[in-house]
């Protein structure tokens, strides 16, 4: 038993509108961009794993980059 069937019906109709993209179809957008001005393709490129790895490298400090560069030698190079 539902305590308030009218409220339940309103919530159900609201969920149906969300599910069927009612407002997206009722109010179409002129451009497919976000508030930043980027398109979906731009976001996909940013979220790609290669780009994320490059961004992580950019976040590293200069000292950390130098330390990784010089201490990442293979054991074969030390024996020469």
Automatic annotation (TrEMBL):
Keywords: Mitochondrion, Mitochondrion nucleoid, Transit peptide. The keyword Transit peptide applies. Its main location: mitochondrion. GO terms for cellular component: mitochondrial nucleoid. The keyword Protease does not apply. Signal peptide: none annotated. InterPro entries: UQCC2 (IPR037698). It comes from the Eukaryota. It holds the Pfam family UQCC2_CBP6. It is found in: Mitochondrion matrix, Mitochondrion nucleoid. One of its GO terms (biological process) is mitochondrial respiratory chain complex III assembly. This is Mitochondrial nucleoid factor 1. It comes from Anhinga anhinga (Anhinga). The gene is Uqcc2.
